[in-house]
Design goal:
heterotrimer, A alpha/beta, B mainly alpha, C mainly alpha, A: alpha/beta, Rossmann fold, 2 domains, 6-stranded mixed sheet, 4-stranded antiparallel sheet, 10 helices, 10 strands, about 40% helix, globular, B: mainly alpha, two-stranded antiparallel ribbon, 2 strands
């Protein structure tokens, strides 16, 4: 895709895939995907269920091995250095999973330590939590009573504690009430401003337009179009996206899965 | 990373009331069992000491008596209770504790504690070994059944994976954490050992240190097997409740059902003889075939007579320089001893075949392998009993021979009318028993050790591969 | 979806869900194995007693024939001075196998079942050398139907049904189900009915097979009423578990928690309870030392031997009608009789002490059995089967009493050295031990069964109310 080449020509990409292909038992989930996200960029992947968004994230996380092609994090090949590449990544799924019998702080401490950051003092950890928008009191409570938004903040705090350079956000906004979604958008903006590379999979065109430096539309495992939200109106983006979705119904893909 | 996993697991355990409750109940039961077992062993040892002393005193002061009458009265061999029986009394309660060393007959050990027990005693016996064999794996299951399955159900597994934790680290961290908690049961074992050291074991098992180390190691392997299996199953099934039901079912089978079934099948395939039948046959062959009125028996006695006359170069019994009645008695003993060997070898053979069949079942129940190892090392198993019974039988033969010799040498023409007195009885030796060395014990349980090792290794593999499998499965979820 | 639809769906699931099917088939096999091994066990018991009695009758017949020959002059009295020897009278004393010893072996596998009552043996030796069972088998306990019902049945019921409500709730299906014209009560009841029904059918089949196979066509009529009582106990225990599980389900906990709760109850009921109760009974009411008893009996015997002349003198003073002149049989016979008589007199009070302790324990357990239904049920099963401890203890005592009565009857003849006459011999008492009666068994299980049923009713009522409340809560939300 031409757009991608233009963007990658300057700075080194933090997240990158080259001709990434993934099939499950012969069924194509991802076909020749080339994307790249540089520090300070947010790439939003839009697409229907099964378009290949989550597969892309799983490949970047090293959970899956590509059928062909490569995925890179901070210049390292994910397939070759699965542990090292995860050090630079923060993964925030739709539902941030936490241990209900532990407090927010303890969860943070645990996941930070798992990522190799086990030398933080409690004060450091509280600082991450406060940066992500939770109070100290909330952090000391058991997470069993946490709302979805609060869980996500622990996820962000974990990413901060991990000193992640790249964020993989898988449908982070779905199911959040509007104020929680606003707050999350603010956080994502801050992260980006501080130089993080963000790859976000979403259905939400409105938020994508608001947050993204670029928007990629995925269909049947392929990136069918990349848009610059600064250059287009929200309405136009929506129209393009919906158009792709419609043709999706009219001409079913070769058998996308995942 | 592993440290963090252990820290988090322990934190979760501490906040789980169920685990605390089971741990405390098990510890309380462990201490109660230790005290109970210690007082039993102490009593048995004290009673044995008193019985040995009384046996000696009665023997020494029986007054004027014909040596052969004395051989009928004879003495008893009392099986010592090892100190380690405080920890694991094994089969002790089900085997006799006293063997009558009478002339003409080889008796089974009598006075089995089980005959004075209450009916329900055979459901369960409160001993430290039993508590560990039954409740330690249960605790391990409780700690680990949710290990992987709950992480998956909650979604934290993916989160962990995204942190770059390799599956083996997650497994090691969880296993160590669970074993740490099971390790909290150690005080009850330490109490058992401390109390065992505080008993009056006048016989003393050779290699007690090695035995103790073996016991500790085998229980660690056993608990490890259950912990690993729990993690492995937890990683393989979809839901933690399924893991729980499967594991508790396995536990119940291993601890409660299979041991009963195994010994039942064992005794069906290798039945012990009926007591009356065994006694009658043995007595016919040992006694009847020598003293009876059959032609064969008459011939046998005639041969003895002819031989002894020839040996001393005389023609008539009256001319013998020795007492012939005593001589004939000793000849009958020599004859009977061969018969006893044959019958008892056969009897022990059926027990041992049974124990081999039970051993086969240890392939489905690690508890069987462990209980074999544990009771063997504690000196309370079938082998220990046989060793004692065989030693007692050898002593019986020497002892009866000693009494017969007295009649042969001093009986002259009086024969059964000859009376020995306390001066003679008081010179007679006591039965001193030395239990088998550790090496001999080990040669009996190496199969059990291999089976237990196999179980632990298989469980380790199950867990290892299971956790890896769960990572793979989660990656595509 | 109607109740019928649920029921038919459940029935189908029994056959199609592999897990349920495997569990049920395994249970069926275990139950059938238990009754068949029981059949062999009971047959062996019967055969042992029959052959023992036959052998005894044969030797009695030979003794009697010699006496007849002397009395009718076929043999000259001088030719057979042993004929009619009073010291040699022997009688068999046996306890008949309990009517349902195949279903609950109770203590019948460790307690002696037959005695050769002979004046040559003191009462402490009446049951000699019967300890030939394998200790492995004895220690493990029997895999009989009582074990299957008490242990395996409840665990199976738990595994089949702990999830009867929570599964639907956890899958979010409960709302959908309840939108149909069916209440939670009906839903749970329909499910439990099918699942527990299958278990009950298997138990019934096993009982029926056991009744027929174990009777071998002979005593089926005599066994039938005991079978009725047995089934009553089994049904009450079954009802208790059914109610308990329903109650646990009605608490509306997570499936995992319900399973843990029920497994915990099973463990306390079957393992912790019996172990603690038997340890308590044995600790609170310790039996006197068997070894000390042995020592005392031997000391008494040695002392009696030494002072036989005095004893004889005392005997003659007590019975001036007896004279010991013209003594035609060897002295040692009279000595043996007197020694045994002295020993008998000295050990009877000690044996009574053993019995008293057992009675205390029984009374203790008859109160505390209500704390653990497994204990109560086992005791009730043994009572109905006629394999309970009390019956065996009573048997042993009645054999001792019987020996005393025979000794008293022939005492004069032994002392004087006089032949028994045939008339005298035929008038000697014969051993008789009353078997268990239907009314006796019914009387002793009545309160335990009532208690089990009351407890099940209570739990069932609570479960009923809980499910009703749950329905209301769901409706309100």
């Amino acid at each position: 895709m031409s757009l991608t080449d233009e963007f990658t020509s300057g700075q080194q990409a933090m997240l990158q895939t080259t001709n990434l292909r993934k099939t499950f038992d012969g069924v194509v989930a991802l076909e020749g995907l080339n994307i790249s996200v540089k520090p300070g960029e947010t790439l939003c992947l839009l697409g229907a269920n099964g378009a290949g968004k989550t597969t892309t994230i799983n490949l970047l996380l090293g959970f899956l091995e590509p059928t062909s092609g490569e995925a890179f994090v901070n210049g390292r090949n994910v397939a070759e250095e699965p542990v090292e590449t995860k050090r630079d990544l923060a993964y925030i799924p739709e539902q941030v999973a936490l241990y209900p019998s532990l407090s927010g702080l303890e969860n943070l401490k645990y996941f930070a330590a798992l990522a190799g950051q086990d030398s933080y003092s409690d004060a450091d950890l509280y600082a991450f939590i406060e940066r992500s928008g939770l109070s100290k009191e909330q952090a000391d409570r058991s997470v069993s009573a946490y709302s979805k938004g609060m869980r996500q903040k622990i996820g962000v705090a974990t990413a901060l504690a991990k000193q992640a350079k790249a964020f993989l956000l898988d449908e982070p906004l779905s199911g959040l009430d509007p104020s929680a979604a606003n707050e999350f958008a603010r956080l994502a903006g801050e992260l980006r401003a501080s130089g993080a590379a963000i790859l976000m999979a979403t259905h939400d065109i409105f938020r994508a337009t608001e947050l993204a430096s670029r928007i990629g539309i995925m269909k049947a495992g392929q990136l069918v179009e990349e848009l610059d939200p600064q250059a287009l109106h929200g309405k136009e983006i929506e129209a393009i996206y919906l158009n792709h979705m419609r043709t999706d119904h009219a001409a079913p893909a070769k058998g996308a899965a995942a | 990373m592993i440290k963090a996993i252990i820290w988090k697991e322990l934190l979760q355990y501490r906040r789980d009331g169920r685990i605390l409750a089971v741990l405390l109940i098990t510890l309380a039961l462990g201490f109660a069992a230790t005290l109970n077992s210690w007082s039993t062993v102490e009593t048995q040892q004290r009673e044995r000491q008193a019985a040995v002393a009384s046996d000696r005193a009665t023997w020494d002061n029986q007054g004027k008596k014909n040596p052969h009458s004395a051989a009928h009265f004879s003495r008893y061999a009392f099986q010592p209770t090892s100190s380690l029986s405080v920890f694991d009394p094994g089969l002790k309660d089900y085997m006799g504790s006293a063997i009558w060393l009478e002339a003409h007959y080889r008796d089974p050990a009598t006075l089995r504690s089980v005959e004075d027990a209450v009916e329900i005693q055979r459901f369960a016996r409160l001993t430290p070994a039993w508590i560990l064999q039954v409740f330690a794996p249960l605790l391990a299951i409780l700690l680990a059944f949710a290990g992987i399955a709950a992480e998956r159900e909650r979604g934290t597994l993916r989160q962990i994976m995204s942190s770059g934790v390799p599956p083996q680290h997650l497994f090691v961290g969880k296993a160590i954490a669970a074993l740490c908690i099971v390790g909290l049961l150690a005080p009850s074992v330490i109490a058992a050992v401390a109390l065992a050291a505080n008993t009056h074991d006048e016989v003393g098992l050779p290699g007690t240190g090695g035995r103790l180390a073996g016991i500790v190691l085998s229980y660690i392997l056993y608990i490890g097997a259950f912990t690993f299996a729990a993690i492995g199953i937890s990683a393989r099934v979809a839901k933690s409740k399924t893991a729980l039901v499967v594991l508790v079912g396995f536990w119940a089978a291993s601890v409660v059902f299979v041991p009963r079934l195994a010994s039942d099948v064992g005794s069906a395939l290798s039945p012990a003889p009926s007591a009356a039948d065994f006694q009658a046959r043995m007595s016919d062959d040992a006694s009847g075939a020598f003293w009876g009125g059959s032609e064969e028996a008459q011939q046998r006695r005639a041969d003895v007579e002819a031989n002894v006359l020839k040996q001393y170069g005389v023609d008539k019994i009256e001319d013998l320089p020795i007492n012939y009645d005593g001589y004939l008695l000793q000849e009958s003993e020599e004859f009977a001893n061969g018969v006893f060997d044959r019958y008892y070898d056969e009897l022990w053979g059926t027990y041992e075949a049974q124990s081999d069949i039970v051993r086969l079942f240890s392939i489905v129940s690690p508890t069987l392998a462990l209980s074999n190892i544990s009771s063997a090392l504690a000196g309370s198993d079938l082998f220990a009993h046989r060793h004692f019974a065989d030693s007692a039988e050898l002593f019986r033969r020497d002892f009866v021979k000693l009494l017969n010799e007295e009649m042969i040498q001093k009986g002259g023409q009086d024969g059964y009318g000859y009376m020995a007195d306390n001066d003679f009885w008081q010179t007679n030796p006591d039965f001193t028993y030395t239990p088998p060395p550790l090496g001999a014990v080990m040669s009996n349980i190496w199969v059990d050790i291999l089976v237990l090792l196999g179980w632990t290794f298989a469980a380790l593999l199950l867990a290892f591969r299971g956790v890896r499998f769960s990572f793979k499965q989660e990656a595509v979820a | 979806m109607s109740v019928q639809a649920i029921t038919s769906q459940e029935k189908k699931a029994l056959k199609t869900e592999p897990m349920q099917l495997v569990l049920l088939v395994t249970f069926l096999i275990a139950s059938l194995y238990a009754v068949l091994q029981g059949t062999f066990f009971r047959q062996a018991q019967m055969e042992a007693i029959t052959s023992f009695t036959a052998a005894q009758e044969e030797s009695i017949g030979a003794w009697r024939d010699r006496l007849i020959a002397v009395e009718n002059g076929t043999t000259a009295p001088t030719e057979d001075r042993w004929a009619g020897l009073a010291m040699d009278v022997t009688f068999p004393a046996t306890i008949s196998p309990g009517p349902l010893s195949d279903l609950a072996h109770g203590v019948s596998d460790v307690k002696p079942a037959a005695s050769r009552v002979s004046l040559w043996r003191s009462v402490d030796r009446l049951f000699g050398n019967y300890q030939f069972q394998s200790p492995i088998d004895t220690a493990a306990g029997a895999f009989d139907l009582a074990f299957v019902i008490i242990f395996i049945m409840p665990l199976l019921m738990i595994a089949l049904s702990y999830d009867a409500l929570s599964e639907d709730r956890e899958l979010g299906r409960l709302g959908l189900l309840l939108s149909q014209p069916i209440s939670i009560r009906q839903l749970v009841a329909a499910r439990l009915k099918v699942r527990f029904g299958a278990v009950a059918v298997i138990v019934l089949i096993a009982c029926l097979v056991g009744l027929i196979a174990g009777s071998a066509g002979q005593d089926i009529g005599a066994r039938l009423p005991f079978m009725g009582i047995w089934l009553l106990v089994a049904a009450a225990y079954f009802a208790l578990w059914a109610a308990l599980i329903a109650w646990a389900i009605s608490l509306n906990l997570k499936g995992e928690t319900t399973a843990l709760l029920l497994a915990g109850i099973w463990i306390v009921n079957g393992l912790v309870g019996p172990a603690s109760l038997s340890a308590a009974a044995e600790g609170l009411y310790p039996t006197p030392s068997r070894l000390a008893f042995l020592s005392e009996a031997r000391e008494a015997s040695a002392a009696a031997y030494k002072s036989q002349a005095d004893i004889m003198q005392g005997m003659l003073l007590d019975h001036p009608d007896l004279t010991a002149e013209n003594y035609s049989i060897p002295e040692y016979i009279r000595t043996a009789f007197l020694v045994n008589k002295t020993v008998d007199d000295s050990v009877v009070p000690i044996l009574a002490k053993f019995d008293a302790v057992q009675a205390e324990r029984r009374s203790f357990l008859s109160k505390l059995q209500f704390a653990a239904p497994s204990v109560l049920t086992l005791q009730a099963f043994n009572l109905a089967a006629g394999t309970d401890l009390e019956r065996h203890i009573a048997f042993e005592k009645s054999v001792r009493d019987y020996k005393q009565s025979v000794a008293e009857a022939v005492e004069g003849n032994v002392i004087v050295g006089e032949r028994l006459s045939l008339a005298q011999y035929d008038a000697l008492p014969r051993f008789y031990h009353q078997g268990p009666t239907v009314s006796g068994a019914l009387g002793s299980i009545f309160i335990p069964v009532l208690f089990l049923l009351a407890l099940s009713t209570l739990l069932g009522t609570i479960a009923h109310a809980n499910l009703g409340n749950l329905q209301n809560r769901i409706r309100e939300n």
